[in-house]
Design goal:
rod-shaped; 96% helix; 55 residues; mainly alpha
């Protein structure tokens, strides 16, 4: 029973560490996604403008 409790505690610590690291990574990842999305949007807008000019 004691061993199980220790394993559960270790698992809890692992989960806490994972959640803490996610709290650090998630904002950066979200910012990166937004930047990539903005870049794609700019590319699409430029492409559509180019198509409009050639037509």
């Amino acid at each position: 029973m004691v061993i199980k409790n220790q394993q559960f505690l270790a698992l809890n610590i692992d989960l806490i560490l994972i959640i803490k690291s996610l709290n650090l990574v998630l904002p950066a990842f979200t910012a990166l996604c937004i930047l990539v999305f903005m870049d794609m949007l700019v590319v699409v807008i430029n492409y559509s403008e180019g198509v409009n000019q050639t037509a």
